[in-house]
Automatic annotation (TrEMBL):
Name of the protein: Centrosomal protein 15
Pfam families, per the entry: CEP15-like
Superkingdom of the source species: Eukaryota
PANTHER family noted in UniProt: CENTROSOMAL PROTEIN 15 KDA (PTHR14286:SF2), GENE, 49355-RELATED (PTHR14286)
Encoding gene (name): CEP15
Length: 128
């Protein structure tokens, strides 16, 4: 009987050691899990901060690009716009005659000879 009692005492001590070890391991796991959560949280904050910074930089770059575009290609003067509009209207007016000529279906457009008068008028307007 004494041997059974001694064996039970040993098993009880071993059980206490195992339970103590288990508690220590659980505590270590919780600490490690808490550290990982804090690291993940700080990494997430860093990612959010980087995203905001990148977005701000992108907006700044787009604004600078727009500013440079307006410097490189300023809006044309109203006279130039008017001249360009009239030019394209003239081109559209003469397209049918030239198209038939270029396709070989009609003779050389006669109205083109008077073009020099129109050119002189346009040149005078540009000088003003």
């Amino acid at each position: 009987m004494t041997s059974l009692f001694a064996q039970e005492v040993r098993l009880s001590k071993r059980h206490e050691e195992i339970v103590s070890q288990r508690l220590m391991l659980l505590q270590q796991m919780q600490n490690k899990f808490g550290n990982q959560n804090r690291e993940n949280g700080s990494q997430q904050k860093a990612a959010e901060t980087a995203f905001k910074r990148n977005l701000s930089l992108l907006k700044d770059i787009e604004a600078a690009e727009k500013s440079l575009q307006t410097r490189i290609h300023p809006d044309p003067r109203p006279e130039v716009v008017s001249l360009e509009t009239r030019y394209w209207a003239s081109v559209e007016e003469y397209i049918p005659n030239w198209e038939q000529f270029l396709l070989g279906r009609a003779p050389y457009p006669i109205g083109v000879e008077n073009q020099s008068e129109t050119e002189n008028t346009l040149q005078k307007e540009l000088r003003q």
